[in-house]
Amino acid sequence: MLIETDLIQADQEHLLHPLYHPSAHQEPKLWVEGRGAMVTDSTGKQFIDGLSGLWNVNVGHGREELAKAAYDQMRRLAFYSAYAGSTNEPAVRLAEKLSELIYPSINTFFFTSGGAESTESSLKTARFYWKAHGKPEKVKFISRMRGYHGVTMAAMAATGLPVYWPMFEPRMPGFSHIESPYPYRFVNKTPEVSDGIAAANLLEEAILREGADTVAAFIAEPVQGAGGVIPPQDDYFQRIRAICDQYEVLLISDEVITGFGRTGKWFGLEHYGIEPDIAQFAKGITSGYVPLGGIGVSDKIREAINSVPPDKRWMHAFTYSGHPTTCAVALANIAIIEGEGLVERAATTGAHLNQALQELEELPAVGNVRGKGMMAAVELVADKATKVPFPASANMGPRVMKEMMKRGLYTRVLGDTILLAPPLITPIETIDQIVQILGESIAAVS
Fold it and tell me: What is the pairing mode between strands 376-380 and 250-254?
């Protein structure tokens, strides 16, 4: 306990955490071990990992295969630059493997260290593409409210969660947002079409408002994750793809959370029968064991990159792009996902999770249960009929979180919405335990 106290004191004196304020870090958990779908704190108490670390530990904690992959690669070649003129086998093999797994029109990849770098790479590549095609005025981006794409400067401008903006204003120019399709709360002002088509048509309105000759790309998560686990209406993305094609706007799919089996498909837009022009990924590609992300570009974008003269080259780079060790871990992680059938398992276990959560709608405080595969959310409301939220003073989400922790479940809340995304290997009995704990916690608070 003395060591734990000393560590926490040193933490509070020397370490800045993501989304930091000291008021939120008075009694931090000190995590010391993870096995499967469980994590253990410094007191020895075990918790169900309700959010796969941070949406990313898809194959579960404590996989020695991944530690061995890193060790073996580090012994041979831990790092060397992959700038043009150099390469390494793990990076090549990973790109080759991804071309087999991802959308058919995407066969070329650039690697980053995480999701925000992937967003930056996507945005820059979209601008590059239009400049290479003689349309340098196409520089603007449209994204969605409740979307999360990271919080580096350009990524933050694309992110549609205003809580991230105020202390870093002004945001980068050239970014605008449309309303989320959010089926539970979307208000269709054109009832002659479905809610999904009406929500998608907001993109067309935004493109026309900005000027189609100025818009480079639309960026969207197949299922909005950090903004509340929001799957769109089934007909939404087909219409989005048609609008992008009509107005010559690239479609960027942010697969940072939805990639590598999370939704019950390898990649999220597979559910909706369309392909993006750029797909960005991170998190699940290594199950979080080492930092890695990247983008995959369509064949037409690869052709643009290959066809420009040398002085107009794709002048984009990161020191750790194509890092041999991280790519080796990614290959081992993908082998686990394939070998254990975790994509298919996410579909079946995810269906069980979402069906079990539906039973919580009988509770007076539960307004909406939603999800896709091994992603789910339970939204609490003060009035089920009107969907009116609880007042902020009720502090419902954090109070439910405390009750869940008492009962051995650790996850995140967004306001009064409880977010769930357990590891893809989570046993059915643990899924049932998650639902039971959540139900008991909501009842205890409300």
Answer: unpaired
